[in-house]
Amino acid sequence: MTTVLPTRPVPATADRILDATERLLARFGYNKTTVDDIATEAGVSKRTIYLHFAGKEEVALASIDRVVGRVTDQLRKIARTDAHPTDRVLDMLVARILGRFDSVRSYHQSLEDMFRSLRPTYLARRQRYFDAEAEVFAQVLEEGRRTRAFAITDPLAVAHDLLVATNGLLPYSLSPAEFGRRAEVAARASRIAGLLLDGLRRR
After folding, report:
1. Across the chain, how many H-helices and E-strands are there?
2. CATH of the domain at 185
3. How far apart are CA 174 and CA 112, in angstroms?
């Protein structure tokens, strides 16, 4: 069964609204951004925003959906390559971290406020995000199990374990100082991914 991520509006106008929202989050943060600000920045009427979104919270959540959707697409792209399963899983673990990091790096100062304001709704969505990612990882892990690259019995359970083990490097877990050190985050992600994969390899 395939996990479906929350849908977002398809029209170009919705993307303009989301692009504007991301710029405002970088500039002012979530709490200081209003629907009027978003309308002005996007060059649309306030009414147009409400045609696509229920309000500011929904716009912000749709922005997060879009970031996660791009990350998941990147994971699928890596999963489809001909690289060895071990290399693919390592690349995917690093990509899920750096994809999110790069998408929100410009507004790291306001990230904590945004997640605090959106926490109940965001947490429900976050589980769907992780379920969708786990399914992609499980496909590669199953291939590795079949080819005897990995000594595992339940690829989906292992996929969820890998996500939990690397969630500490996702943006909402990083301090403002860590946001200024992309190279360090990338290196740490690679080291952790390597350690995890050492535990999965067949001896």
Report:
1. 8, 0
2. 1.10.357.10
3. 10
For the residues 43-50, what does the mean pLDDT come to? Answer: 94
Flag whether pLDDT at 99 surpasses 90.
Answer: yes
Total structural domains in the chain? Answer: 1
Query: CB-based contacts of 190: which residues, under 8 Å, 6+ apart?
Result: 90, 94
CB atoms within 10 A of CB 59: 23
Q: Determine the 3-state secondary structure of 43 from DSSP.
A: coil
201: which strand partners?
Answer: 150
The domain of 83 spans: 63-200
Largest CA distance in the chain: 62
C-alpha to C-alpha distance for 38 and 42, rounded to whole angstroms: 6
CB distance 33 to 21 below 8 Å:
yes
